[in-house]
Design a protein that fits this description.
This protein is α/β, with parallel strands linked by helices and 473 residues long. The chain has 16 helices and twelve strands. The protein has an eight-stranded mixed beta sheet, with helices on both faces. A four-stranded antiparallel beta sheet has the order 2-3-1-4.
Length: 473
């Protein structure tokens, strides 16, 4: 059951991480600005270098001209211009927050470039050819002047300026040749013109954001984050997981009991409800047999049961052990947890007098309550204002000696070793101590500290009991 709950816990972390990441991505997608992509293509005539022309189209000169044509105060969106390998086609891609704007700007980049290059001259008539050449020369000179007159020279403008200067020289040479010899009209080789191969159209949907891709990446990121969180949590959590960790803490101390998770153990009163088919029945009786075997030599008559830390289930283990021992021995179960007494609830007593009254010199017989054959209980009694002061009385030593004479075995339920010094004080008066740790709850550092405390008190640790062990299916 516990293993299943751990698995479920890990799954929950992963599911929460994935859902959180996906939800965050969807929110960001909803809030993100839409980006539309439009593409226009330009076809170059034979003889042009497509890669060089692509540099020209993407230059600041053309971009400035696009802004003038569109009559906008700011520069238009930049274009991503590339040549298609093995062809004379140049692709002009523009992205914008509006579909129509993206298409209009892409087409304007193409037309601005084509107009700058100039249409193919009409060489069928001398006057028309001269006029075309003069118009192209004027356009190139204007472009060069605009670059030269810029306040800050853009490095990107060096390529188009060099191209413009080369073309200007070529056209001026052609014009001079034509004017000197009109008969050379048929031999004119003007720089080839370009035409729009495919106009850009407003895209039907945005390129960005992409909800499906974003959600997928977010889910993957959520899985990774969840896995990292699980690993970090498990590394930082030193809660007891299995027996091997106890062996590493104290190799010579045996594990004398492994009590499975059993909801029936939480039902009160414990006495009188034991069933042979309880899942913990065999484990409790196995613990009893270990205690009897270890207690043979030397005889261990007074046994303290205490938790390494709060919440280990010490009272339940002490009560169940005493019930199991009473089947073959006379047993006294004593509640020395004067801060949070629970034994009287476990065995069905209601606010009885108990150990506090005994330590105030009341006779033991007044506080002994027979629970079943072979088992008597002394409850804690009314909680004192200073438990340590009560436990330090000499009367406690006398009581323990008297209980040894009356019973075969005395089981003492005490506070945990981590919270107070009560358990260490009691440990000085007993023959052996059973340390209880709860799987997934008690930390290994608490167990290690508990062992040091008991060593300092010269107490004998009989063994560890692991409570709430996971039940394997």
């Amino acid at each position: 059951m516990k293993i299943a709950s751990v698995v479920v816990g890990r799954r929950t972390v992963l599911v929460v991480a994935v859902l959180g990441a996906v939800a965050a991505s969807m929110l960001l997608t909803a809030l993100s600005a839409r980006v539309y992509r439009a593409e226009a293509t330009v076809l170059l005539r034979d003889g042009s270098n497509a890669a060089v022309e692509a540099q020209l189209i993407g230059s600041g000169v053309i971009r400035f001209g696009v802004g003038q044509r569109l009559d906008i105060e700011t520069l238009p969106p930049p274009a991503r211009v590339t040549s298609r390998p093995g062809t004379q086609v140049v692709s002009i891609v523009v992205r914008s927050g509006h579909a129509a704007t993206a298409a209009a700007v892409a087409n304007t980049y193409a037309t601005t470039y084509i107009d700058l290059r100039g249409p193919a001259p009409d060489i069928s008539d001398f006057e028309d050819a001269v006029a075309d050449l003069e118009e192209q020369i004027a356009t190139l000179r204007t472009a060069i002047d605009n670059i030269d007159s810029a306040t800050v020279t853009n490095p990107d403008d060096k390529v188009p300026r060099d191209l413009f200067v080369a073309r200007l020289s070529h056209l001026e040479l052609q014009l001079a040749t034509l004017e000197a010899d009109p008969t050379s009209l048929g031999d004119i080789d003007i720089v080839p013109a370009a035409t729009i191969d495919e106009k850009a159209t407003p895209p039907g949907k945005a390129e960005e954001p992409r909800p499906a891709r974003t959600a997928g990446l977010a889910a993957l990121a959520g899985l990774i984050i969840g896995a990292i969180a699980i690993v970090l949590a498990e590394r930082s959590n030193d809660a007891l997981r299995d027996i091997t960790e106890l062996n590493a803490i104290r190799r010579r101390v045996p594990v004398i009991g492994q009590i499975p998770h059993d909801a029936a153990l939480q039902i009160r009163p414990s006495v009188g409800r034991r069933r042979i088919d309880d899942t913990s029945y065999t484990s409790i009786h196995g613990l009893r047999d270990e205690v009897l075997l270890i207690g043979l030599e030397p005889p261990l008559r007074v046994i303290q049961v205490c938790g390494a830390a709060p919440g280990a289930g010490t009272t339940t283990i002490a009560t169940e052990l005493a019930i199991a021992l009473s089947e073959y021995s006379s047993v006294a179960l004593i509640d020395l947890d004067l801060r949070s007494p629970e034994i009287h609830h476990m065995v069905g007593l209601h606010n009885p007098i108990g150990m506090v009254d005994n330590l105030d010199s009341h006779p033991i017989d007044l506080t002994l309550f027979p629970i079943q054959e072979g088992l008597d209980v002394i409850a804690a009694g009314r909680p004192p204002s200073s438990p340590m002061a009560v436990l330090s009385r000499v009367r406690l030593d006398t009581m323990m000696n008297e209980m040894r004479d009356r019973y075969d075995i005395v089981v003492i339920d005490s506070p945990d070793l981590e919270s107070y010094g009560d358990a260490t004080m009691i440990a000085r008066l007993v023959d052996a101590v059973i340390v209880v740790a709860r799987v997934g709850h008690t930390s290994t550092s608490s167990i290690r500290s508990a062992c040091h405390e008991l060593d300092a008190a010269n107490a004998r640790i009989m063994g560890f009991v692991i409570n709430d062990m996971p039940t394997r299916r």
